[in-house]
Design brief:
Elements (H helix, E strand, L loop, with lengths): L8 E3 L10 H6 L22 H14 L21 E6 L5 H11 L5 E5 H11 L1 H8 L4 E7 L4 H16 L3 E6 L13 H7 L7 E6 L18 H14 L1 E6 H8 L7 H4 L5 E7 L5 H16 L4 E5 L8 H4 L4 H16 L1
Parallel strand pairs: 1-7, 2-5, 2-6, 3-4, 4-5, 7-8, 8-9
């Protein structure tokens, strides 16, 4: 299918069936739009959480971007020898992706890549494992955002891939989908990460980042819900100035099952807003996980969401939130709230 080139109007995502070749997937391995210009200078460490400045200083050293500011983390200590990989460990909204993108932009390298865990595993699925190894062999840097720990098969594939790349000189920087610091939960995922990638654990230096979710610092905890008339007005406004999508929630969820997650970004091509009618809670976990992957792409593209029905932060039932994919769902809720209030 050829995606509409119209710059204004309404489209329906359920009518889009995008294709994505391996070369296009590789070309897309760059920081998302909101972090296209991210630098260490634009990362504002919160003085209430000293670990943020400490992390920034360590990552400046890792990227070779210059010496930390006088009085920083290395004021009284000789700079330690850094490992080939760094793992940024912290909750939602503390700036991990900003720092990861800053590494990407600062490292003086000819071949460097930035992608989410799902983008790398999708590339392996599209090209095959050995072809993917050859594609990345000799790369200077791989940045992996939101390293997934809940799928043993994918984790094993990525661990093996990273092991082969490190042995040929590639440097690594990763974050994971850690839940917010709330409700007495374990605060950080470092031990989980190191345990799951045990064969690679010695290659990573863990850098802890405390803080509160910046997306929730000035907003309440619920996604915005519109009445039908408000929704119609919002869609009309969005369509007058850009290209907006308008879909029934259940229809879109069903369509996502027919589109590979690596192609979700192409579903959103050209859009300036996403509209969802009649939002309802999930009953099927596979459908919920596909929606999480879709929302990751919506958030990366900085697209506002307008919705009717159930508040989007309530679409994951308690039994799902209590299960093994809790981290993914909490991340999605954080992003849904932010996107509906944008």
């Amino acid at each position: 299918m050829t995606v509409s080139t119209a710059r204004t109007g309404i489209v329906h995502l359920v009518e889009r069936t995008p294709q994505l070749a391996g070369a296009e997937m590789v070309a897309a391995l760059v920081p998302p739009p909101q972090f296209a210009d991210a630098t260490f200078d634009t990362y504002c460490a919160d003085p209430a959480f000293p670990s943020q400045q400490q992390a920034k200083d360590l990552l400046i050293a890792f990227s070779g971007a210059g010496q930390p500011a006088k009085g920083g983390f290395f004021r009284k200590a000789k700079r330690p020898e850094l490992k080939p990989g760094v793992y940024l460990d912290g909750g939602f909204g503390v700036g991990k992706t900003h720092l990861l993108a800053s590494i990407y932009h600062a490292l003086p390298a000819r071949r460097k890549y930035f992608g989410s865990f799902i983008e790398y595993t999708a590339l392996v699925g599209a090209l095959g494992y050995q072809n993917t190894v050859e594609l990345f062999r000799g790369a200077d840097l791989l940045c992996i955002d939101e390293f997934e720990l809940d799928d043993p098969g994918d984790t094993m594939v990525m661990t093996r891939l990273l092991g082969e790349l490190v042995s040929s000189g590639t440097r690594l920087a990763a974050t994971s989908n850690t839940p917010p610091n709330a409700l007495g939960e374990g605060r950080f995922a470092a031990q989980d990460f190191l345990r799951e990638i045990h064969a690679m654990a010695s290659s990573f230096q863990t850098i802890r980042i405390d803080g509160t979710d910046y997306r929730h610092r000035a907003v309440d905890g619920h996604a915005a819900v519109l009445t039908d008339p408000q929704y119609e007005a919002a869609m009309a406004d969005a369509a007058a100035s850009g290209l907006a999508s308008d879909d029934v929630f259940g229809d879109l969820v069903a369509h996502l099952a027919r589109v590979h997650p690596s192609r979700y970004i192409r579903l959103l091509e050209g859009l300036t807003a996403v509209g969802l009618r009649d939002v309802a809670p999930f009953e099927d976990q596979s459908a919920a996980l596909r929606f999480v992957a879709f929302i990751d792409r919506v958030y990366d593209a900085e697209l506002p969401i307008r919705a009717t029905g159930v508040s989007l932060d309530l679409v994951f039932p308690e039994e799902m939130l209590a299960g093994g994919y809790r981290k993914k769902y909490l991340r999605a809720i954080s992003r849904l709230v932010a996107s509906t209030l944008a």
